C-alpha cells in the first residue's frame, strides 16, 4: 500500500495523506481521522527517510533526535531517558539512543550522527567525562546539554538548581539537630556533584558548624555507595547526618552499613528522588529533581533551535528548582 494508492481509495489528494501524518499541518480533523483509520486498516506507514531524501533542502526533516547518554547503571539515567523519549514522541520526534560510556564511544557516536540525518541532539553529559563536553559542543547540529553547562555559553543547558539541592539537604539535617555532617560526592569532575556539595557546605557553615566531612565515591552508582558503606562504616558512624550526591549512592551506603553493622542509625539524605528511593527497603528522604520539567524544558529549547524560533535573550542555562521529599 502506497500513499498514492491510499489517496485513490479514499478519494483524497496525495498531499492530504502526507499532511495526515505530519503534526501541526492544516487538515480537517475528520479527514485526518479517516485517513489514519484507513492507513491502520491497510498497514500503510509513510517513509520518513525517503521523504527527507527526496526534498534535500533546509526545510526537510528526518524527525529523528539523537540522545547521547551513558551510565545506565544509574536509575536516574534510565528515568530521565524515559521522560525525554516521552516528550519527544509527543512532539512527533523519534528518539535515537547513542549509548556513550567513554570518550572513545562519543568519538564514534559523533561520526555516526551525520549518517542518521538527525534534526538535533540532546546530550546528557552530566555522567560523562568533562572532556566529552567540547566534542558535543563541536557538533554542527542543534544541541541542548543536560547535567552540565558550556562555560562559554554557546550551547543552551537545562539543569536542576543543584546548589539549592545542597541547601535543602542541609536545612533538613540541621533541623533534625545534626551537627557532625558529611557529604558523599559523585564524579570528581561532575558539575552537579560539585554544586550540590557547595550548597550543602555553604548552609552548614552559615549555621556555625565545622565544614562537612567530604567523602568521594568517584561515581553515582549503588555499587560505589555500597563500597563506601562497607569500607568507611566507622567514619560514617561518627557522623550524625550524611548528604549523598545521588539516591543510588545513598541506597548503596545504607546497604553497606547494614552489612557492616555500623552506621545503621545514620540519617541520610539522597538526591534525585528516583522511583526506587520510595521502595520499602529504603524509604529514603531525598531532594527531588523535577525530571518531567527538565525533559520538557530541554525538548522545548531543542525544538526552538530546529525551527529557528530560539529566543536570543534567553539565558544560556535553565535551572529548575528542586524540592525536598521527606521519608523515613
How would you describe what is shown here?
The structure is a single chain. By secondary structure, the chain is of the alpha/beta class. The chain has 3 domains: 3-46, Orthogonal Bundle (434 Repressor (Amino-terminal Domain)); 64-160 and 291-322, Response regulator (Rossmann fold, 3-Layer(aba) Sandwich), CATH 3.40.50; 162-288, Response regulator (Rossmann fold), CATH 3.40.50.2300. The chain is 45% helix and 16% strand. It contains 13 helices and 12 strands. The strands form 2 sheets. A 6-stranded parallel beta sheet has the order 2-1-3-4-5-11, sandwiched between helices. The chain has a 6-stranded mixed beta sheet with strand order 7-6-8-9-10-12, sandwiched between helices. Strand 8, helix 12 (247-260) and strand 9 form a beta-alpha-beta unit. It is elongated, with a radius of gyration of 24 Å. The termini are far apart.
Q: What is the topology, as strand order, of the major beta sheet?
A: 2-1-3-4-5-11
Could you name the CATH homologous superfamily of the largest domain? Response regulator
List the total number of helices: 13
Let me know the number of strands: 12
- Broad shape: elongated
How many structurally independent domains?
Answer: 3
User: What is the C-alpha radius of gyration, as a whole number of Å?
Assistant: 24 Å
State the share of residues found in helices, binned by percent: 40-55%
Q: How do the SSEs run, as a string of H and E?
A: HHHHEHEHEHEEHEHEHHEHEEHEE
Q: Enumerate the spans where pLDDT stays under 50 for 5 or more consecutive residues.
A: none
Amino acid at each position: 500500500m502506497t500513499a498514492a494508492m491510499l489517496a485513490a481509495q479514499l478519494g483524497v489528494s496525495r498531499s492530504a495523506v502526507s499532511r495526515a501524518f505530519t503534526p501541526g499541518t492544516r487538515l480537517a480533523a475528520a479527514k485526518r481521522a479517516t485517513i489514519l483509520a484507513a492507513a491502520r486498516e491497510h498497514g500503510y506507514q509513510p517513509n520518513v527517510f525517503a521523504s527527507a531524501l527526496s526534498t534535500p533542502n533546509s526545510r526537510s526533516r528526518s524527525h529523528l533526535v539523537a540522545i547521547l547518554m551513558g551510565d545506565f547503571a544509574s536509575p536516574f539515567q534510565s528515568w530521565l531517558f524515559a521522560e525525554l523519549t516521552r516528550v519527544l514522541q509527543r512532539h512527533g520526534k523519534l528518539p535515537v539512543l547513542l549509548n556513550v560510556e567513554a570518550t572513545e564511544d562519543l568519538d564514534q557516536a559523533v561520526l555516526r550522527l551525520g549518517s542518521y540525518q538527525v534534526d538535533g541532539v540532546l546530550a546528557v553529559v552530566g555522567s560523562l567525562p568533562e572532556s566529552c563536553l567540547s566534542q558535543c559542543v563541536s557538533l554542527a547540529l542543534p544541541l541542548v546539554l543536560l547535567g552540565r553547562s558550556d562555560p562559554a555559553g554557546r550551547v543552551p543547558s537545562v539543569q536542576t538548581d543543584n546548589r539549592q539541592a545542597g541547601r535543602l539537604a542541609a536545612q533538613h539535617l540541621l533541623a533534625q539537630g545534626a551537627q557532625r555532617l558529611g557529604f558523599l560526592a559523585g564524579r570528581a569532575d561532575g558539575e552537579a556533584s560539585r554544586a550540590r556539595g557547595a550548597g550543602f557546605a555553604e548552609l552548614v557553615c552559615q549555621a556555625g558548624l565545622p565544614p562537612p566531612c567530604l567523602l568521594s565515591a568517584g561515581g553515582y552508582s549503588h555499587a560505589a555507595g555500597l563500597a563506601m558503606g562497607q569500607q568507611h562504616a566507622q567514619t560514617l558512624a561518627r557522623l550524625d547526618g550524611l548528604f549523598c550526591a545521588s539516591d543510588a549512592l545513598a541506597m548503596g551506603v545504607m546497604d553497606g552499613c547494614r552489612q557492616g553493622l555500623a552506621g545503621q542509625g545514620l540519617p541520610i539524605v539522597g538526591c534525585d528522588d528516583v522511583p526506587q528511593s520510595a521502595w520499602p527497603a529504603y524509604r529514603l528522604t531525598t531532594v527531588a529533581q523535577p525530571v518531567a520539567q527538565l525533559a520538557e524544558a530541554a525538548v522545548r529549547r531543542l525544538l526552538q533551535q530546529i525551527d529557528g524560533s530560539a529566543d536570543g535573550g534567553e539565558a544560556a542555562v535553565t535551572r529548575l528548582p528542586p524540592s525536598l521529599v521527606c521519608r523515613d
